[in-house]
């Protein structure tokens, strides 16, 4: 078979073909004739293409969802795409795929009274001819073949249920997709059925007989009958009414059977009376063909045009079908998803769309945001678009509605999505442990709450939220500084972090360095304990306890390890000094005796010291006024004279002071004291306290007190 496609050069093509994504899918009239088919633009009458099947085409059906045209030829059933390319050819006789040649049902041999109907649910086509009823799937495989007892006079498809009504002279029966009878209407004998039509508005059925027109409701009950003669074809107008093609005229009835008008569309032109008609459900009009001409009759009965659709080929016209891209495109919003929470106030809206007809016009994509119209800025493809909305969405719930049109102007059903904008991160409140904790316990309880439902982790490990959005758990610390990161991520993806710095210290502090700690002479029963820098661990607690009275004073050492604390004590009592660090570790205690009152300050001077202020060297029982700072001096050193030390073989430290204003010499090793009345002068045999070293005979360190006070 040869397919001839002829374009009408120099003719004005319908404007919709110029802007359609699929120019071949624009609205068109498909006309079957004695040599094949022609495709005509309904808006202009322009011949769009011709398909030559080398034989007459007596019945046509359009599958708008799969963009194909089924044609009943003289020797086969054909399927073409909208551009005229042949997709299938099913020759007669029809057979199931499992039947051998010669074993299947015989096929029809002529086109007279052939009928076709396409089921949009699956793209299958019903073919009725003679007493046979066939159903083919979209691949052309025979699924149903039924031989009825009487010739088939008409078929009508209930698209909502995928039921095919089949009329014979005895009955009208409904068949499902499997070919099973699921309903029917009994007719009187010798009813001579001419045609039937299904009304999608009411769900009822029109039945045209030789002399009567009957209407039944969706339950098969007769609503009315009206006398009409010589009916050839009928078709529902899509508005509850009916178009009727009679022997010479066409008429239109309303839903109650009232005749609105009746006209002669061809007005005596050659070709005879109407052979077929195709109602236009969009505007209520109808297209009618006779053997030669195609006529358009408006919804009010005006005959707007009568022309020969293919005058060059001198064919005889048999059937006409109007393909109108009346199906709206489909659109959906894929992102954001319904009910989700997002953390941006300017989200991108992702949509998908499709259209079985002329195609989706991406420029028609339109949005309505929270009740206000909004045109998005979109990056579009053939199947969808990613759009940015010019308006910033509000915090909280938002609703976006999208619609799109196809090139025929059909508007999609709106796609709607509601989602929540949440740009505020969750709050984390910690009740334990405190920030900066220093502890000697490795296991620590962690507890707190978050401000909103969220996913919570501690150093990547999940924490479960309980009642009131609270949480609790246990963490294990390692020796030294530990960093614990709490992270909360809410349903919108906002995250918040809380960093904890915790220190595990299980090492006890060392013993206090008594060489850097001094105790003052008791004054009114109080002494001052002073530690120089490095005497204890910096920042630790210094615990000073009077071993006699049990009194305890606690003070925090400075960062350099120095401290000062006052405590009740008397001469000769022992003070216990211990250190407790921030983690609670306690070190060993050191004992220090409280000195007797009256010891000169000079006995604390290190060896070889010169140039101290004289005020620091004046004994406590002397009057500062008696000393002249210009004539006051101090000499320190070491003598290696065994006679002056308590222990033979030891060397001892000494110092000597001289106040030239008093003009008297002080005995070696004596304290520079002012004698009280009646008191003895210091003895020249007074000796300093010595310390013995086993490795060498040298007294080192500081002499803390004298053996006796000045008399």
Automatic annotation (TrEMBL):
Domain (Bacterial Ig) ranges: 526-595
Pfam families: Big_6, Glucodextran_B
Annotated spans, Disordered: 666-695
Signal peptide (UniProt feature, chain positions): none
Coiled coil region boundaries: none
Protein name, per record: Bacterial Ig domain-containing protein
Species whose genome carries this gene: Syntrophobacter fumaroxidans (strain DSM 10017 / MPOB)
């Amino acid at each position: 078979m040869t397919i001839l496609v002829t374009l009408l050069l120099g003719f004005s093509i319908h404007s919709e073909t110029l802007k359609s994504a699929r120019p071949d899918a624009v609205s068109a009239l498909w006309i079957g004739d004695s040599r094949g088919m022609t495709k005509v633009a309904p808006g202009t009458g322009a011949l769009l293409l011709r398909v030559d099947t080398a034989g007459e085409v007596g019945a046509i059906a359009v599958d708008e969802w799969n963009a194909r045209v089924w044609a009943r030829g003289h020797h086969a059933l054909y399927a073409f795409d909208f551009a005229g390319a042949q997709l299938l050819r099913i020759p007669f006789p029809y057979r199931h795929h499992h039947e051998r040649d010669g074993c299947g049902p015989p096929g029809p041999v002529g086109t007279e009274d052939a009928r076709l109907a396409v089921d949009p649910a699956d793209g299958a086509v019903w073919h009725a001819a003679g007493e046979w009823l066939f159903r083919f799937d979209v691949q052309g495989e025979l699924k149903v073949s039924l031989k009825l007892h009487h010739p088939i006079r008409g078929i009508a498809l209930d698209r909502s249920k995928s039921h095919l009504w089949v009329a014979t002279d005895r009955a009208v029966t409904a068949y499902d997709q499997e070919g099973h009878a699921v309903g029917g209407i009994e007719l009187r004998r010798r009813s001579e059925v001419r045609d039937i039509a299904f009304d999608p508005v009411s769900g009822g059925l029109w039945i045209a007989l030789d002399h009567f027109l009957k209407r039944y409701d969706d339950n098969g009950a007769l609503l009315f009958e009206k006398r009409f003669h010589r009916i050839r074809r009928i078709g529902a107008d899509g508005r509850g009414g009916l178009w009727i093609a009679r022997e010479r005229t066409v008429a239109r009835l309303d839903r109650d059977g009232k005749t609105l008008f009746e006209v002669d569309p061809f007005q005596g032109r050659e070709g005879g009376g109407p052979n077929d008609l195709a109602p236009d459900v969009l505007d209520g009009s109808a297209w009618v063909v006779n053997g030669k001409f195609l006529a358009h009759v408006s919804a009010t009965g005006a005959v707007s045009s009568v022309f020969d659709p293919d005058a060059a080929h001198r064919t005889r016209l048999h059937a006409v079908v109007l393909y109108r891209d009346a199906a709206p495109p489909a659109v959906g919003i894929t992102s954001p998803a319904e009910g989700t929470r997002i953390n941006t106030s300017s989200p991108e809206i992702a949509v998908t769309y499709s259209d079985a007809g002329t195609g989706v016009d991406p420029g028609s994509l339109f949005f309505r945001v929270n009740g206000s119209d909004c045109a998005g800025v979109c990056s579009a493809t053939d199947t969808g678009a990613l759009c940015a909305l010019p308006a910033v969405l509000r915090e909280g719930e938002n609703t976006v509605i999208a619609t799109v049109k196809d090139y025929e102007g059909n508007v999609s059903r709106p796609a709607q999505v509601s989602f929540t904008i949440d740009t505020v991160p969750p709050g984390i409140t910690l009740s334990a442990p405190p920030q900066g904790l220093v502890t000697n316990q490795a296991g620590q309880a962690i507890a707190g709450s978050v401000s909103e439902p969220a996913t919570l982790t501690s150093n990547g490990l999940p924490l479960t939220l309980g009642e009131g959005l609270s949480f609790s758990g246990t963490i294990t610390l390692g020796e030294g500084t530990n960093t614990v990161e709490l992270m909360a991520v809410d349903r919108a993806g906002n995250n918040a972090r809380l960093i904890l710095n915790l220190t595990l210290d299980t090492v006890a502090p060392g013993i206090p360095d008594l060489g850097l700690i001094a105790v003052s002479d008791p004054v009114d029963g109080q002494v001052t304990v002073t530690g120089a820098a490095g005497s204890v661990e910096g920042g630790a607690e210094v615990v000073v306890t009077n071993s006699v009275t049990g009194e305890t004073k606690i003070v925090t050492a400075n960062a350099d390890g120095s401290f000062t604390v006052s405590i009740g004590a008397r001469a000769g009592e022992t003070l216990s000094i211990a250190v407790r660090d921030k983690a609670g570790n306690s070190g060993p205690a050191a004992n220090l005796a409280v000195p007797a009152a009256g010891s000169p300050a000079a006995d604390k001077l290190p060896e070889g010291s010169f140039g101290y202020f004289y005020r620091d060297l004046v004994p406590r029982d002397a009057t500062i006024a008696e000393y002249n700072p210009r004539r006051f001096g101090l000499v320190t050193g070491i003598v290696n004279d065994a006679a002056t030390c308590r222990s033979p073989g030891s060397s001892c430290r000494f110092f000597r002071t001289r106040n030239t204003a008093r003009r008297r010499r002080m005995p070696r090793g004596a304290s520079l004291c002012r004698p009280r009345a009646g008191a003895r002068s210091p003895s020249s045999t007074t000796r300093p306290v010595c310390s013995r070293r086993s490795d060498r005979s040298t007294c080192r360190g500081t002499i803390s007190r004298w053996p006796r006070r000045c008399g």
